[in-house]
Amino acid sequence: MIEGAKWRRWVFFYMPLGIFIVSLLFPFYWMMVTTVRPDSELYRPWSAPNYAPFWTSHPTLDHIRYLVEETLFNTWMLNTLLISIAATAISLFCGLLAGYALSRLKFRFAGMLGTGIFVTYLVPQTLLFIPLADIIRNFRLGDTPWA
Asked: Engineered SS bond to 110: which of 31, 50, 105, 117, CB 3.0-4.6 Å?
């Protein structure tokens, strides 16, 4: 009886969990291998006899060096960091004020109003992006940090 439970645990828990973890982590592994792979190995055809898709024999940091030195990656990353921090701070501040105000409401439909506001958070953000994109286009803010 104990051996049967151990066998079932391996088949129904550990093996699916292992497959799940490997399938989730494999894209990150592939990105790391591709990052350090030289161009000669990167563009080698799949039918080549010495092609090793899951490992690189001569790792290099040339692609990372090119990204940092020859492109505007650092500027783009700083811009993304600043805008994400500012958007998060604004959202937290507004949410804090709104949450406090809603918790202090004492009128007949206050509970329903709070529930209605909570339900609007369940609307997919892709649906909210369509009218927001229209507003950004109308005010010509498309290529500015205000977008």
From this structure: 105
